[in-house]
Amino acid sequence: MTSSSLLNVDNLVVEYPGKGFRAAPFRVLKGVSIDVNPGQTLGLVGESGSGKTTLGRAVLGLAPVTEGRILFENRDISHASRKDRRALSRDIQVVFQDPYTSLNPAMEIGAILAEPLTVQGQSPSDAHARVKELLDQVALPSDAIHRLPREFSGGQRQRIAIARALALSPKLIVCDEPVSALDLSTQARVLDLFLQIQKDTGVAYLFISHDLDVVRHISHRVAVMYQGAIVEQGPTEQVTRDPQHPYTQRLLLASPVPDPDRQATRRQARKELLAKWAEPVGA
C-alpha cells in the first residue's frame, strides 16, 4: 500500500452467514490487498467464483466487510453510512456487466443520465447541458436523449451506462465485467472508449474480468484472484507475458487465439498444466 494510491484495500475479509443452524460463516474474500493509483487501471481477473465481483461490491459498499480496511483517498470507507455513501457517489461509480438491466427501460436516456445530476442538486438546464456533453463523450447521437434503452444495441447501451457513470466526474469507476456480454468487435470499441475516457479525464478503473486478454488490453497493473485470494499481481506486461503462478498460466492458456495451430498448441499445454496441477491450486 502507498499513501499516493487512490484506493487501498488492505487485508480485506468478507464473510456471509453459513446455511443451516450453527453453520460456519462462508469466507468469500480471504485477506485481499490491492491498490489503485490515480488515473490508472488495475485489472482484477479470475474465473467465476473467485471472489472478484465480491471485492468490487465491497468497494461500492454492497458487500459486508468482516475484517480489514478499504481506504479511498486515505479515508476509511469500510463501514461508511448510507449518507456517506451518497456523498461518495460523486467520486466512486460503477459500470455493470449487463447494461440493459442497469438502465430503467421506462425512462428516456436523457432522464437516465440527468438523474444523478439532479439528485446532487444541479438545475434542469445545467443537467441537460451536461447530458449533451456525456453523449458526445461516448460517441452517441444527440437525439439519443429522447429514446428508450430498448432502441439501442448492446454496445450502445453499454456506452449509455458508461456515460451515466461519468456524469458526476468520478475519480474511480468499478467496472464489473463491462464487455463480457458483447461480441468481440463491439468489445474492442468499448475498450477503446474506456481508454480514451481515461486519457481525457484521468479517471481510475478497477476493471473486473474473467478474460486475461481483455485485462491486458486496458490495465496498467493486474491482480489475479483464485478462491478468494490474490495469487499474483504486478505490472500488466509481467503478469500476462510471463506469469509465475500456475493459475495465471492456466488463465493465459485458456484465452483463444486466431491461429488454429497456436490454439491447438495452447490447448495441449493447458491440458498438461491441468494434469500437473490436478489438486486445488494454492495461494
What is the fold's blueprint, element by element?
Elements: E1 7-16, E2 26-36, E3 41-45, H1 52-59, E4 67-72, E5 75-76, H2 82-88, E6 92-95, H3 109-119, H4 124-137, H5 154-166, E7 172-176, H6 184-201, E8 204-209, H7 212-218, E9 221-226, E10 229-235, H8 236-241, H9 246-254, H10 260-276
Parallel strand pairs: 3-8, 3-9, 6-7, 7-8
Antiparallel strand pairs: 1-2, 1-4, 4-5, 9-10
Describe this structure in words.
With 283 residues, the protein is an alpha/beta fold. Helices cover 39% and strands 22% of the residues. The protein has ten helices and ten strands. The protein has helices at 52-59, 82-88, 109-119, 124-137, 154-166, 184-201, 212-218, 236-241, 246-254, 260-276; strands at 7-16, 26-36, 41-45, 67-72, 75-76, 92-95, 172-176, 204-209, 221-226, 229-235. The strands form two sheets. A six-stranded mixed β-sheet has the order 6-7-8-3-9-10, sandwiched between helices. A four-stranded antiparallel β-sheet has the order 2-1-4-5, with helices on one face. Strand 9 and strand 10 form a beta hairpin. It is globular and about 50 Å long. 39% of the residues are buried.
Structural class: alpha/beta
Radius of gyration: 20 Å
Helix content range: 25-40%
CA-based shape: globular
- In order across it, which strands form the biggest sheet? 6-7-8-3-9-10
State mean pLDDT (0 to 100 scale): 88
Task: Kindly state the number of beta strands.
Answer: 10
